[in-house]
Design a protein that fits this description.
The chain contains 13 helices and eleven strands. It is an alpha/beta fold. The protein is globular and about 55 Å long.
């Protein structure tokens, strides 16, 4: 772990760290487990989250010798809850074995736009009922194994024609359509007590024609928190994605996101490096916003309390397994057989 990141964690007591293969912090199961142990111990009072994007298909940070899973659209075509349960149980077992405590999955977007460049086969289905049913099963199995799940991307990124990594997509549906279609999987996730929900960097003009969903109190607080009743942790998508960053620098975006109702924000870096100075500046921006009373202290205290409750629910004392134990579990014949069964629906 870079010295700069350790210093940042000591100064600000970071809530957690996310692993990315592009940053060079994923090498082998033994190395990932050791790094997870170090990250957990960064927390002062409670362990830090060890987060990762491990969906399956093209969004999977852990590659061979970990089990490689097909895209979630393949699982959706099976429409098989029992198979989804086997998949999620195996996925969770491998994540938990190397100390991953938070998986930014499942994708709950509905793939209603075939031209969508960012969601595509990451979505379980173009049918809300299938996404809701299988998404709920994945959440239940991840969390049964002690891995916090994160439904994404609220209020729905499935029917967009642009990629929020590069520009701000526009969602033109009326609120009634969102409630009838896009929200169905998120409701199921809430019923399953999903630990986290991730916001989308999309402009939903019928609800808020000025601010992207991540920065919109009308969407984060009004729809997700008040209307749908989600009481877990709301986390932003990466604030360095251009859908946000082209208009709002990460420090300003962090303040607006927390003010809107987010309880945590992601600043993940670009390319092969994480910008620790930028992350530190965003943390300082949050502190200054509270000091200047632009960000109510009660809002920050509520965010910290939700994070604390989630950590108490999921983070247990943990030490890395032995290399032999990891070799037995990671990429096991049983797990590969589940992957192959899923691939029959490709």
């Amino acid at each position: 772990m870079p010295v700069e990141m350790r210093s940042l964690a000591r100064e600000f007591d970071l809530g957690g760290i996310t692993f990315f293969g592009r940053l060079g912090n994923i090498e082998s199961p033994e190395q990932v487990a050791g790094l997870s142990f170090d990250v957990r111990n960064l927390g002062r009072e409670l362990p830090a989250w060890v987060g990762i994007d491990q969906e399956g298909g093209r969004v999977a940070r852990l590659r061979s010798p970990f089990t490689e899973w097909p895209p979630m659209a393949v699982l959706g075509r099976s429409d098989d809850a029992a198979l989804a349960r086997k998949f999620a149980g195996a996925l969770a077992a491998e994540l938990a074995a190397v100390g991953i405590s938070l998986d930014y999955a499942p994708v709950l977007d509905i793939h209603t736009n075939p031209k969508n460049p960012v969601i595509g086969d990451r979505a379980l289905s173009e049918k809300p009922g299938i996404v809701a049913k299988l998404g709920r099963v994945i959440i239940e199995e991840l969390q049964r194994a002690g891995v916090a799940a994160c439904g994404k991307h609220f209020p729905g990124h499935g029917d967009t024609a642009t990629d929020s990594h590069f520009e701000l997509p526009i969602v033109e549906h009326a609120p009634d359509r969102l409630r009838a279609i896009e929200f169905e999987p998120f409701r199921a996730a809430i019923e399953a007590r999903v630990a986290f929900m991730m916001t989308a960097h999309v402009l939903v003009v019928s609800v808020d024609d000025e601010r992207p969903a991540t920065l919109s109190p009308k969407i984060v607080q009004g729809l997700l928190r008040d209307e749908l009743g989600f009481d877990g942790v709301i986390v932003s998508d990466d604030l360095e994605m251009k859908g946000i960053a082209d208009t709002y620098p990460p420090g300003e975006a962090a303040v607006l996101a927390v003010a809107a109702g987010c309880d945590a924000v992601l600043i993940c870096g670009t390319g092969k490096t994480a910008d620790v100075e930028l992350q530190g500046a965003a943390l300082e921006a949050l502190i200054h916003a509270v000091e200047d009373e632009r960000l109510p202290l009660k809002r920050v205290e509520a965010a910290l309390e939700r994070n604390r409750l989630a950590k108490e629910r999921f983070l247990r004392d943990w030490r890395p397994p032995t290399a032999a134990q990891l070799r037995t579990l990671i990429g096991s014949e049983q797990h590969r057989a589940i992957s192959e069964q899923m691939s029959e629906f490709a």
